[in-house]
């Protein structure tokens, strides 16, 4: 099930962090972790608890002294996903906090997640399947390693191929039962969140082919180079033709290692590529796509043509 509709139905600056937890439910079928975090952050924001998620809204959470820094998502590289499957992107960061905050305590929740759109009303979000592992560097500094798990068939639409932002949160429950359906004293719960920690692009994986013919060919005769550029379609779960973009037809002379661009070719409505050149010397022909913000660069393996 895709989750974007759920995110769009929520509001308030806490939404992103509130949803940024594994979607497990309590053993007795009670509120999910998403509901619990949402309620905690709403309470910290001075709003009433999410209806039906937890017990009576009593008190206000106290602010934690927490700062996120050195956040790196996927080692600073774009996250590239095909139309289906599962992509795991590493997330590393440092958390500086007061000495009374123990990130490794069982009743302390910490995570860094991704969202697209505005912080108050995100259009979509991504999180890790598991909680991060945090290691103490000192009494007030931890380094944490987590993941963002991407399942395009469940999580993404084509419009999600853009720049996402990272946000982080810490909730110290202080032995309060987060799943309680009885009255919760929020004044015992510590909360902190921080936005704009990093930015990362999500891209739709691409593929390109080439066929140069005829082969062999007479010197001076015409070579036709055909191919197709396709892109992961997160709406449909398959690869589709990438229409209306340009790929470079490139040539590498036999015995050399460098390709040179001969001309640029625009793809058809189905991603098709086709153009002609004159045969001169033996060598390899390929199509090279330089990429866009939404799609990574890709080059076909060279197709050898023997010129006689």
Automatic annotation (TrEMBL):
What range does the record give for the signal peptide? Answer: 1-20
Q: Which UniProt keywords apply?
A: Signal
UniProt keyword Signal, yes or no: yes
Report the domain of life of the source organism: Bacteria
Q: Please give the name of this protein.
A: Calcium-binding protein
Question: From which organism does this entry originate?
Answer: Streptomyces longwoodensis
């Amino acid at each position: 099930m895709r989750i974007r509709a759920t995110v769009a139905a929520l509001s308030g600056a806490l939404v992103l962090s509130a949803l940024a937890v594994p979607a497990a439910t309590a053993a007795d079928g009670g509120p999910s972790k998403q509901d619990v975090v949402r309620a905690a952050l709403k309470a910290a924001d001075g709003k009433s608890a999410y209806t039906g998620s937890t017990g009576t809204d009593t008190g206000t959470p106290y602010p934690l002294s927490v700062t996120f820094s050195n956040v790196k998502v996927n080692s600073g590289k774009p996250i590239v996903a095909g139309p289906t499957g599962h992509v795991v992107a590493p997330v590393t960061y440092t958390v500086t906090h007061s000495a009374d905050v123990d990130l490794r305590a069982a009743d302390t929740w910490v995570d860094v997640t991704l969202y697209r759109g505005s912080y108050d009303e995100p259009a979509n979000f991504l999180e890790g399947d598991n909680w991060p592992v945090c290691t103490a560097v000192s009494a007030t500094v931890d380094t944490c390693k987590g993941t963002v798990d991407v399942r395009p068939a469940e999580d993404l639409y084509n419009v999600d191929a853009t720049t996402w932002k990272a946000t982080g949160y810490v909730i110290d429950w202080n032995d309060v039962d987060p799943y309680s359906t009885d009255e919760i004293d929020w004044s015992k719960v510590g909360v902190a969140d921080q936005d704009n920690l990093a930015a990362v692009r999500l891209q739709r994986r691409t593929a390109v082919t080439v066929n140069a013919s005829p082969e062999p060919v007479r010197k001076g005769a015409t070579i036709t180079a055909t191919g197709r550029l396709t892109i992961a379609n997160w709406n449909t779960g398959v690869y589709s033709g990438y229409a209306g973009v340009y790929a470079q037809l490139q040539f590498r002379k036999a015995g050399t290692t460098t390709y040179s661009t001969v001309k640029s070719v625009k793809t058809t409505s189905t991603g098709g590529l086709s153009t002609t050149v004159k045969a001169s010397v033996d060598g390899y022909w390929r199509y090279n796509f330089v990429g866009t913000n939404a799609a990574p660069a890709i080059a076909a393996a060279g197709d050898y043509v023997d010129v006689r």
